[in-house]
Amino acid sequence: MVEAVETFDGWYSLHDLRSIDWTAWKYAKEEERQNAIAEFTELLSKWEAVEENKQGSHAFYKVVGQKADFIFMFLRPTMEELNELETELNKSKFAEFLIPAHSYVSVVEISRYQPEKPGEDLENTPYIQGRLYPTLPKWDYMSFYPMDRRREGNDNWYTLEKDVRGKLLYEHSKTGRKYAGKIQQVITGSIGFDDWEWGVTLFAHDVIQLKKIVYEMRFDEVSSRYGEFGEFFVGTIMNKEELANYLAV
Ligand code: 76R
């Protein structure tokens, strides 16, 4: 019988993408704009404090292209906190000038294909804990996209035996490790939560490495035979300090 793999699940994740209503923003009074920026900056500071206390993390990037203007990735211990956080953002003055563009709900996931050694408590090792509850990197570039594993005719991931899937993912991880220090990936599981099966969030110092890793992985069997991809979003980092300048009209 084909077996599911056990997963370690960490913080809950919300990717929240917004476009700016530039026309409304330009027509607003200068005082209104300044108030919106000040209040939003306070929200950013609040999220930074959560991150410093290791109660969650976030990433904030400017999206390149017309799919959105901003992408936030929020990590929190519970779904409720994600919900509260988005509601607080929605109630803010700044949100009056934001148009929802896209969102994605998932949970940080590590699949356990490697058998545990006797007496080992893998989940509680500092390495696994650090990956389940990560402080997201503040690297210059980010890419986010959802993906599925294919289930078509002879290319059905869900009819492969666990050891076969484990071997294919091991091959995949060897490609991944070539990008150590260049790419940091966060895999989030979204089965039961959103439209695709996983969310892939990649961070890079050099934007071209995002293209290189995804391209190279396309040739790994786990992607070439079993990977289906959704929409890609790519962004450059947004710093709190540059916000006022970015929003100046
Ligand atoms: O968790 C681990 O590090 C163990 C090995 C590993 C697994 C099980 C691993 C390593 N990944 C795993 C699972 Mn991955 N990963 C992706 C993408 O665009 C594409 O073609 C794929 C998008 C990237 C870029 C990437 C990077 N990985 C998964 C899964 C879940 C599958 C399942 O459970 O069925 C998906 C959807 C997925 C997708 N992966 C790595 C990387 C990198 C860089 C590594 C090496 C990490 C390291 O060892 O430091």
UniProtKB/TrEMBL annotation:
Any single Pfam family the record assigns to this protein: Chlor_dismutase
Active site: 145
Catalytic activity: harderoheme III + H2O2 + H(+) = heme b + CO2 + 2 H2O; Fe-coproporphyrin III + H2O2 + H(+) = harderoheme III + CO2 + 2 H2O; Fe-coproporphyrin III + 2 H2O2 + 2 H(+) = heme b + 2 CO2 + 4 H2O
Cofactors required: Fe-coproporphyrin III
Stretches that traverse the bilayer: none
Binding sites annotated in the UniProt record for Fe-coproporphyrin III: 131, 145-149, 172, 185, 223
Cofactor, free-text remark: Fe-coproporphyrin III acts as both substrate and redox cofactor.
GO MF term set: heme binding; metal ion binding; oxidoreductase activity, acting on the CH-CH group of donors, oxygen as acceptor; peroxidase activity
Pathway connected to this protein: Porphyrin-containing compound metabolism; protoheme biosynthesis
Keyword Iron carried by entry: yes
Keyword Iron: yes
Cited InterPro entries: CHDC (IPR031332), ChdC/CLD (IPR010644), Dimeric_a/b-barrel (IPR011008)
Similarity section: Belongs to the ChdC family. Type 1 subfamily.
Protein name: Coproheme decarboxylase
Gene name of this polypeptide: chdC
